[in-house]
Design a protein that fits this description.
The radius of gyration is 21 Å and the shape is globular. Helices cover about 30% and strands about 20% of the residues. It has about 350 residues and is of the alpha/beta class.
């Protein structure tokens, strides 16, 4: 009898151990962590010139004009983002998954041959970053999947952000790596804001951008249960001065045709903590660490995680270890665009989150 009891207890411990280990995903094959440089077959011969401001590259003309920020990052500047992902993984341990999901920018996919001397290639930057990530950090390589869909509306032409469809493919790849369900666009309603001209009109100082409006398409989940709660910060010159009490609100904001604020459709901006509780019951709770590029990602995760938390690297005043523990977070995703990913501000802020 004593032997049977001991055997039963051993079996229970093994099963519990397996269940705990299932939370942490297996290391990836090296092929999943490698970027294949994209070859531009869409606009290689397009006319191009530098805009009046910020070295912005204007590609083509007329109503198909595209304005792109150049990439100033290098394989060396990429190492800090890998380092912060590694630090978080060491701090959080084996039961919490940490993902490195840097977001490429439009110039990588639409740069004409004649403009290659005005920007750095992004593939070597990403390969350097991914190679520096420890084996226990999960790389989400969205570079390749975006290249496969570069002929679609994955980046806005008149705004420095990507387009919601680009974020859709990124979310698809994230869910594949995370091993959670994902619903395709047949489960979403499509909306369009006509005559959208985004940030590149003012960033570039070029009137031709204003004369090339585009349609802004975004997607909202259908037959999906979720509740969004915001902790809205009070700010002054980009610094947190206080906060409003937590309050429920709409995740998707509504803007009319011609609005230059269309990208604010997602959560209405950055200076807040967003918590979305869904009808999913799989024990998976994710944080998206992000800049404004990351705002378009969470809306595609409401079928995949039971909770989705969104934290901007510029606006967070709590201790992140306590926040992760208190909210039973299982997955932590670093999802900054490549410029911010390689910047000192994001690195220093993410480190500060650990000790503040």
């Amino acid at each position: 009898m004593k032997y049977l009891i001991h055997s039963f207890l051993a079996a229970v411990l093994i099963l519990v151990g397996c269940k705990l280990q299932a939370q942490s995903l297996l290391p990836q094959d090296s092929a999943d962590r490698c970027v294949t440089p994209y070859v531009n077959k869409l606009t290689p011969n397009a006319t191009c010139r530098k805009a009046a401001k910020a070295g912005i590259i204007l590609i083509g003309g007329g109503d198909t004009l595209r304005a792109c920020n150049p990439c100033n990052q290098t394989p060396k500047t990429a190492l800090s983002y890998a380092d912060i992902c590694n630090i978080y993984k060491r701090k959080l341990g084996d039961t919490i998954n940490v993902y490195c999901m840097p977001i490429p920018t439009a110039i990588e996919y639409y740069c004409p041959d004649a403009a290659k001397g005005w920007t750095h290639p992004e593939a070597p930057v990403l390969n350097s970053m991914f190679a520096a990530c420890s084996d226990s950090v999960l790389v989400v390589n969205i570079y390749n999947i975006l290249g496969e869909h570069a002929n679609e509306r994955i980046f806005s032409r008149t705004d420095h952000h990507w387009a919601p469809r680009g974020a859709y493919y990124a979310a698809m790849k994230l869910c594949e790596v995370a091993g959670v369900p994902f619903e395709d666009l047949s489960h979403y309603d499509e909306h369009v804001i006509h005559s959208f001209v985004g940030t590149m009109a003012s960033f570039s100082g070029e009137s031709c951008v204003k004369q090339a409006p585009e349609d802004f398409y975004y997607y909202t989940p259908r037959d999906c249960e979720y509740t969004t709660t915001y902790i809205q910060y009070k700010t002054n010159k980009g610094k947190i001065t206080g906060e409003h009490p937590a309050a429920e609100g709409e995740f998707f904001k509504s803007y009319g045709d011609g609005s230059g604020a269309a990208y604010n459709t997602f959560m209405g901006g950055d200076s807040k903590i967003t918590q979305v509780r869904t009808g999913v019951n799989n024990g998976r709770r994710v944080i998206i660490f992000k800049d404004s590029f990351g705002n378009a990602i969470p809306g595609y995760l409401f079928f995949s995680f039971e909770e989705v938390h969104v934290i901007d690297f510029r606006f967070f005043d709590r201790n992140i270890i306590n926040y992760i523990r208190d909210n039973k977070i299982t997955d932590v995703v670093f999802a900054n665009n490549l410029t911010h990913a390689c910047g000192n501000t994001s690195y220093n802020n993410y480190k500060r989150f650990l000790i503040q």
